[in-house]
User: What shape does this take?
Amino acid sequence: MSKSIAGPGGRTPLKLTPLQAVACCSPLLAEPMSTEQAEQVAALLKALSDPVRLRIVSLVAAHADGEACVCDITEAFDLSQPTISHHLKVLHELGLLDRDKRGVWVHYRVNADALRSLGAWIGTLPDIEGARPTVDA
Assistant: This one.
């Protein structure tokens, strides 16, 4: 799932993954995003909105050395191996997980730069007049 945009000089198209689009986007509320940027970022947010995928990212990040074998990931869920593989494929294709095949097993690790970029993009708020954080009393 990548978008083509004109490269330098308008000659060679560049392919941007949703993750790359987030990295080049301005923060969420700093300026309006284009339709293309919104579509790219929405793909990442949609992937992470699935509870299984969110748990997979959390499980991999919390695993020893920040890396988990597909066998360990599958054991943590009451889902079939093909279903887990589908979720892992989606997360990998969007750039949220990196993978490395070792023999018959595939090991996954979180792409920390991807999550940092997404977090920075979401977490940067402008100083809006009248906007105050709420505090529970």
